[in-house]
Amino acid sequence: MHELKLTAREVEALICKAFPDADPERMPRVDEATPGRLRMVSPAGSSMLRPGGVISGPALMSLADTAAYAIVLAHVGEKLMAVTSTLTIHFLRGAKPGDLVADASLLRLGARSAVCDVRLWTESPDDLAAQATVAYTLPAG
Questions:
Q1: Strand ranges of the sheet holding 29-34, from the earlier edge strand across to the other edge
Q2: How many CB atoms lie within 10 A of CB 90?
């Protein structure tokens, strides 16, 4: 079983500290962190939309990567130099405008790497917009 080292609020504060130039109103929030799981929500915004009125692929990929980073930090603590090594995403359906939710789960956490599953949706977790597998390389020590 995975053990949390940081709470949802601590993860959110750490990400804001790591990216001080980011617009705080546009930053995704960590709604929940439990052992092996994390939920993050990105507030709706017109800049997320592509022609056709659905959330763009880059917005989906960005939240998938951010949620994976957040779940890794929640379980390893203040190791800000964890870096994405792979991100594979499957777009399943157009994500209608609205708050974008990422449900992340930790598939593997080792000494040097972590692998996460991230499911993205706006309307319902039963109507996924995308699913991503994200791997992170962790700093030594």
A1: 29-34, 37-42, 100-109, 113-121, 130-137, 83-91
A2: 9
- 8-25 pLDDT per residue, tens: 999 999 999 888 888 877
User: Which residue segments constitute the domains of the chain, with CATH numbers given?
Assistant: 8-137 (3.10.129.10)
Number of alpha carbons in the 13 Å side-chain half-sphere of residue 139:
9
pTM for this one?
A: 0.95
d(CA 49, CA 47): 6
Q: Please tell me which residue, 16 or 67, carries the higher pLDDT value.
A: 67
Cα dist. 48→18, 84, 121 in Å? 23, 22, 14
